[in-house]
Amino acid sequence: MKRPYKLYLLTAILVFTIMTPMAWASSINKTGPKNKVYRIAYIEGGPFWAFPEIMKATKNALESMGWEDKISFLEKDHFSPGWNSQNRAKLNACAKKLMSRTDIDMLITAGTPATEAVLKVNNNKTPIVAIGVSDPLKSKFVSSKDDSGIDNFTARIVPGRFERMFEIFHDVVGFKKLGLIYTDTDNGRKYTNFTDAHIVAERKGFEIISYSKIKDQSQAEDCLTGLKWLVENGMDAFFIPATNCFDWSQNDVKLLINFLIENEIPTFAREGTKYVKSGALMGFSSIDWSARGKYVANKIVKICQGESPRALPMLDPGMPKITLNIYVAEKIGFDPPFDIIAASDEIFDDITLPEK
User: Which residues form a coiled coil (predicted)?
Assistant: First the structure.
């Protein structure tokens, strides 16, 4: 049985500034122009489990703000070409078509590839709200953490989040050889936070072992081959990336998790709670979808009320919280330090697989 415990004792590895990134939203009115229904289109490179979670939370937030009847998300305005390499041309074509339309009031781009495709053909008029983008700064979608540099574009930036993941993981586990799996492309390296891992590795003095032979559309079996190679080459910890073969909605991730547990490999899940519940050792407690939904909904409403997307705050410096699976810790022979247990926002004592 799952038993999450709310514990708020923070340790030295979790000393960050507490801020309220959405304080600016307090001025939002619950009403907009009378009889106006804003039509919002949506585009993603392909399905990924986090995208519908963000959209569901966003729609719930809009409803709670009294805007559910003022926003239209039509199925015919939802575009998802697919992750196969041959679909990249379709994604670019969809982006170009959307930017040429005059019947939509806003566009939501989900993920790095979709956002990249749209910005390449940006008409500089239709407001664009990016969600689920790994790192807008490293992707060069924005000019800085404080300014998108594009009048009709806004995104969400969590400063230093990914470096903190690797730092905390190493502080807790003390591994010597961290394994990474990724597709050998710019986006593939972003999904596994390749640059952040190497920055922290140099700082902390651990080695990184990489396997880059998977493709964008790789299946669990492809990543299993990579995991076996990493174990054979001395990996003693693994970072679970945001790749398709680790997407529970598309693949048998249990195959990969079981292999890692059987080989007593500590794991840190980039996508957090869902993966820790399902067999990862630890991750950032994620994701408070209601807070993420409010963040996106507030931007949508502000834009509908006439504000420029570029003028909206992008920083979301919320303090990270840890989620830990003590059942997995026992299975792999790892004794978590008391202070990390005390600092954990969520603790699970079994493995619960997600519903597809």
Answer: none
pLDDT at 31 over 70: no
Query: Rounded mean pLDDT of 110-128?
Result: 97
The domain ranges of the chain are 17-159+288-311, 161-285+320-348
Q: How confident is the model at residue 276 (pLDDT cuts 50, 70, 90)?
A: very high
Q: Which residues touch 106 (CB under 8 Å, ≥6 apart)?
A: 38, 39, 40, 41, 126, 127, 128, 129, 300, 303, 304
CA Rg value for the chain:
20
pTM of the predicted protein model: 0.74
Strands 322-325 and 282-284, by their bridges, are antiparallel
In the DSSP assignment, the letter for residue 103 is S
At residue 248, the pLDDT reads 83
Number of C-beta neighbours around residue 351 at 10 A: 19
For the 161-285+320-348 domain, the top CATH level (class) is alpha beta
